[in-house]
Amino acid sequence: MTMYDMTRVNANGYFDSEDTADARYEKKAAMNKQRTENYKSGNYALAGGVVDPLPEDAPQVRMWVKTEPLPKHSTLKLFS
Q1: Chain centre to alpha carbon of residue 75
Q2: Contact 45, 34 (CB under 8 A)
Q3: Which ranges constitute the DSSP H helices of 1-80?
């Protein structure tokens, strides 16, 4: 399982591939342009996401969710 720090990814790109002042400026300019277009049109442009319907050979994802509350003052441990 992989977990991304999306704030960092938005700022610096995946694996810090866009970690320059010029790259960050270009990314901000592109996002601001899209936000302005979305506001003016009243519609939000979509990108990516899950294909619907999923292909038959798509990998199955299983999620486990703890439904009962954690005990007070408990500690969560993260495993990689």
Answers
A1: 26
A2: yes
A3: 6-12, 21-41
- C-alpha to C-alpha distance for 17 and 36, rounded to whole angstroms: 26
Predicted TM-score of the model (pTM): 0.49
Listed in sequence order, the residues at least 6 apart from 38 whose beta carbon sits closer than 8 Å to its beta carbon are: 44, 45
The Cα–Cα gap between 64 and 57 comes to 22
In total, the chain counts a number of residues equal to 80
Cβ–Cβ under 8 Å, residues 18 and 27: yes
Residue type at 74 in one-letter notation: S
pLDDT for residue 35: 92
State the Cα–Cα distance between residues 63 and 29, nearest whole angstrom: 37
